[in-house]
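Q: How would the structure tokens look for this protein?
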Amino acid sequence: MANRFVPNRQNIAGFLRTPEMHALIERKTRAVAEAAAAASDADGHFRVDVETGDRRARGAVIGDYSTRDPEVSRRALLRALDAARTVD
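A: Here is the predicted structure in token form.
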């Protein structure tokens, strides 16, 4: 019989709601946006959306608004994903 991992959802949710985790999410999201802007073949105007409410913490980097070509935006974002690893 295989061992089964059952996550403690309440503790995980509580951890994700801490001010420290919200700050980390924001720092990592902004680092990805900056790296994507630097990697972009266009002017690199990426939008950052960070939502840290009572029940949710989310960070998103949204497309390169300096170009109409979605491939330019996608390539820059893919190149920038490692930027979040270097931010504490």
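DSSP finds three helices and two strands in the chain.

The longest helix spans residues 19-39.

Upvote if useful.
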